[in-house]
Structure formats: structure tokens, C-alpha cells
Automatic annotation (TrEMBL):
Protein name: AC9 transposase
Domain of life, source organism: Eukaryota
Single annotated GO MF: zinc ion binding
InterPro entries per record: ZnF_BED_domain_contain (IPR052035)
Keywords: Metal-binding, Nucleus, Zinc, Zinc-finger
A Gene Ontology term for the protein's cellular component: nucleus
Subcellular location: Nucleus
Amino acid sequence: MMSVFSLNFKNISRPTTTRDLLIYYAKKIDLVKEKLAKSFGLVCLTSDDWNSEHTNDEYICVTTHWVDKDLLILWTLCKPFLAILNSCLISMLRTPNQYLPLWPSVLMIWIMI
């Protein structure tokens, strides 16, 4: 259908899109791990939770913040997302202390602990 509007449009299949996104994600993970390895070791982890208005799904996003060692003169703050968690258990978690059991699983993915 889109080829009618643009002759340069190339239809991409769902498996191709999935494969390409997983490759892109793996490259980004490696890049973030390299940057974290070069950091001073002073890393701040934060989390934020929200819910989808349409599906009532709840999410927790874990973000890390650090100052890039290579760009220390410019004080470049790096803050990539580490994880976005979606679980039926999240709806029962209402206080920061209840979030604590989720942190080790997120950090183990990134081999930070």
C-alpha cells in the first residue's frame, strides 16, 4: 500500500524487523557496558513507574546516570535506560522498599553486581 505513495518504500517483514531490533539492542547493550566500565564507578540508579491508560499495564523503568570519564571536561551526563519491566507483580508494588527485590535481577542482566 505504501509503495503507491512512495516508490522508494521497501516493505519489511515482521521477522526481519524483530531480528534487526534485537541486533541493534545487543549493540547498544555492549556500548553501554563499555561506557560503564570506563566510568569512575560513581553511578546513580533511579526508577520510575507508570501505567498505560489503554491497557492498564504497569511498568517500571530503571535508568543509570554517570559522568562520562572521556568527556569529564564537558561534564557529559550519560543516562541510558537499563530495563523496562512489565509484570503483573508491579501492580502490587507501591513503595520503594517493595521495589528492592527487583533491582538484583535488573543488575544481574548488566553484570553490575
